[in-house]
Design a protein that fits this description.
single chain; about 290 residues; D-amino Acid Aminotransferase, Chain A, domain 1; nine-stranded mixed sheet; seven-stranded antiparallel sheet; 16 strands; binds 3-[O-phosphonopyridoxyl]--amino-benzoic acid
């Protein structure tokens, strides 16, 4: 495995960072998880733009301009001879001293790892997954802004622990007003009276790139689509529910907090959008080996 780490291509064993990197000491940094399919990076520019905005929001300067970052990303995938997989881009605040002050860190760190991807078990895509709402609230925009894809994932990890303790793979996180925000690594959708609904990002969600893609595909199909506040009751009484994310793609949910959703089987809207999504991943994206 070849990893890009702070200016050079290294082996896995050589790819190490300083114990004084604020990415490690404080979770101070940003990242992206990007998929590539069939030799093309899916929604590459959208992911790079989100990385740029996450960094800008926390006053972190990316170590190089986006076109250069894109070239490094493609080069890392090529050196690993992969056509299908996942690439993780990590920008840390860099090496500093033991104080919180981020401005003591002179140079941001940059790590790029290309690998194969571990998915949810295939059976869950067929049968649908069971998820639970958890006590851990999604942080609000006035605390750790959910729209910043930062290295500070403890909020999501605490929720993930609750899901696993409950025997589930994913958790629904509510915001402090009790409205549905998102899952720990996925956005959430429901279908009600034939309308596709997802919470607005202002409820405490990441502006997922899979979410945006699915919204666009749904509009192209002519499905009515609305971003609206959702409660647990809305989830329980939905006709369909599914999650979206780079890793998960589009995955059906058939049980929430023990309540059966709709017919108890993955629904037709999810099936159609999943099919459209998978087709798009196979036919579009930035070529890696061109
Ligand atoms: N919400 C959160 C909090 C996320 O971290 C998504 C939604 C979906 O966004 P995209 O742009 O991917 O459609 C994410 C991203 C994992 C893993 O290992 C998942 C994500 C990020 C990093 C790791 O499951 N999901």
């Amino acid at each position: 495995m070849t990893i890009y780490c702070n200016g050079k291509m290294c082996s896995r064993a050589e790819a190490t960072v300083s114990v004084f990197d604020h990415g490690l000491l404080y979770g101070d940094g940003v990242f992206e998880g990007i998929r590539f399919y069939n030799g093309r990076v899916f929604k590459c520019d959208e992911h790079l733009q989100r990385l740029h905005e996450s960094a800008h929001s926390i006053m972190l300067h990316l170590p190089c301009p986006l076109p250069e970052l894109k070239a490094l990303l493609l080069d890392t995938i090529r050196r690993n001879d992969l056509r299908d997989g996942y690439v993780r881009l990590v920008v840390t605040r860099g090496e500093g001293n033991l104080g919180l002050n981020p401005f003591t860190c002179a140079t941001p760190g940059l790590i790029i790892i290309a690998d194969r991807i571990a998915l949810y078990p295939p059976a869950l895509y067929q049968q649908g997954m069971a998820i639970v709402t958890v006590a851990t609230q999604r942080t609000g925009a006035e605390a750790v802004p959910p729209r910043v894809k930062s290295l500070n994932y403890l909020n999501n990890i605490l929720a993930k622990i609750e899901a696993i303790n409950a025997g589930c793979e994913e958790a629904v996180m509510l915001n402090r007003f009790g409205f549905v925000a998102e899952c720990t690594g996925d956005n959430i959708f429901i279908v009600k009276h034939g309308v596709l609904l997802t919470p607005p990002v202002s409820m405490g969600a990441l502006q997922g790139i899979t979410r945006d893609t699915v919204l666009e595909l749904a509009r192209q199909r002519g499905y009515p689509v609305r971003e609206d506040t959702l409660t647990r009751h809305d989830l329980f009484c939905a006709e369909e529910c599914f999650l979206t994310g780079t890793a998960a793609e589009v995955i059906p949910v058939t049980k929430i907090d023990g309540r059966v959703i709709g017919s108890g089987a993955p629904g037709p809207v999810m099936h159609q959008l999943r099919e459209d999504f998978l087709k798009l991943t196979q036919t579009t994206g930035t070529p890696i080996y061109a």
